[in-house]
Amino acid sequence: MAAATAVSLFRYSPPHLTRSSTPNIRPLKLVFPKSLLNDHHHQQQQPPKPPSPLDSLFVFCTSLALSFSIYVADADAFVVSPPPRKLQTDELATVRLFQENTPSVVYITNLAVRQDAFTLDVLEVPQGSGSGFVWDKDGHIVTNYHVIRGASDLRVTLADQSTYEARVVGFDQDKDVAVLRVEAPKDKLRPIPVGVSADLLVGQKVYAIGNPFGLDHTLTTGVISGLRREISSAATGRPIQDVIQTDAAINPGNSGGPLLDSSGSLIGINTAIYSPSGASSGVGFSIPVDTVGGIVDQLVKFGKVTRPILGIKFAPDQSVEQLGVSGVLVLDAPANGPAGKAGLQPTKRDSYGRLILGDIITSVNGKKVTNGSDLYRILDQCKVGETVTLEVLRGDHKEKLPVVLEPKPDES
Question: Which Gene3D superfamilies does UniProt cross-reference here (predicted)?
Fold first, then answer.
């Protein structure tokens, strides 16, 4: 058997190529009989010329490049590039809502005058902060009253981080609403779209934008978890009716910020949370926009809210319950007030020091009154100058008295 000479070449062989398999590159040996080489030698009549090292290197590099190009060409056919990350439809809607409404939300800094204990210098130091939103192109900013309470100066920071001095246009302590005004260019002011709160439903999505803990604009989401709730004003204790309850996180600094529906329309002002620790516990409250709208209009036009009053001071509800009756016990009725003019009897002591109970209001215009909240709720539906009929329990008999409602005195 004739001897053979082996010549090594590279060949690409993908037997069963899949996405995860690695193509095999193995050397291919071609065997030529020595007799054939000898015959070729005799035909050429020349001795074989040994290849130079440069030629061998050129052949090797060419073979390697050819094999690599074939491998890459076939391997690329099985590599699938991951698609770019895409957001779901609801995520896109949330992102768009935040981007479109953030320019309407502002950051409010409450500055108070303090005297340094060592140098006796009078300084303005931040004593609190909160959120607010642009109401119109005239520079009116709406927020909570407790955000600006006790401030000597106020500063409003817009979404582009420009800061302006703000003055108080007016406020309503009973409903915890305040209106400020800044002298900012109109092109920097983007009023928030105002919606309706009368047709809200429990379970619908809501979005709260604000500046909690002094951070930049943040967004929290949730649902309406309750309607027609009642909370008390932090300033006066007067009840605020028809409050929206939500589980959207409302932390310190969110106060005064907007509560939006899924269309990006204003449905309330974030005003309070129910939490022993002061942080969000899943129960937040917002003043409905239907209540806020009428208050803001009065504050912008007149600088105050003309809310009717009876002009009385009444006993705590617990005291009346201990007497075994329901209604509002009149403690004081100044003679120059509406109730005093109508003849309501206050609580007093006789010459022997014995306590003589005053009139107990049991109804107004035929609407039953069981406590102070009921009385406030009915008065909120009345107007200044309107005559209402009070039914009172005086001793052991009932009487009806007409009372002309008067405006609430100006607040300083």
Answer: 2.30.42.10, Trypsin-like serine proteases (2.40.10.10)
Distance CA 88, CA 387 (A): 58
- The span from the CA of 49 to the CA of 139, in Å, is 96
User: Terminal CA-to-CA distance of the chain, rounded, Å?
Assistant: 122
Q: Which of 129, 255, 280, 363 is catalytic?
A: 255
Residue type, 317: D
Amino acid at residue number 292:
V
Pairing of strands 4-13, 360-364: unpaired
By three-state DSSP, how is residue 404 classified? strand
User: Residue 249 contacts by C-beta under 8 Å, 6 or more apart in sequence?
Assistant: 208, 212, 220, 222, 280, 282, 284
Is pLDDT of 173 > 60?
A: yes
Q: What is the pLDDT of residues 12-21, one digit of tens each?
A: 444 444 444 4
Residue 162 appears among annotated catalytic residues = no
- The total number of residues shown for the chain amounts to 412
What residue has token string 């770019």? Answer: 84
Q: Do 288 and 242 meet the contact criterion of CB atoms below 8 Å apart? A: yes
Cross-strand pairs, 177: 172
**Per-residue CA distances from 129 to 28, 84, 144, 205, 231 (Å):** 79, 41, 11, 27, 22
Residue 194 tokens, joined: 């105002």
- In the residue annotation, 146 being an active-site residue is answered as yes
Q: Where are the beta strands (DSSP E) in 266-312?
A: 266-273, 284-288, 308-309
- 255 catalytic per annotation: yes
CA dist., res. 227 & res. 200, Å (int):
8
Which pTM value belongs to this model?
0.66
Alpha carbon distance 384, 307 (integer Å) = 7
Please tell me which residue in 176, 261, 359, 374 is annotated as part of the active site. Answer: 176
Token pair of 157 as six digits: 């920071």
Specify the 3-state DSSP secondary structure of 363: strand
Decide which of 138 and 115 is more confident: 138
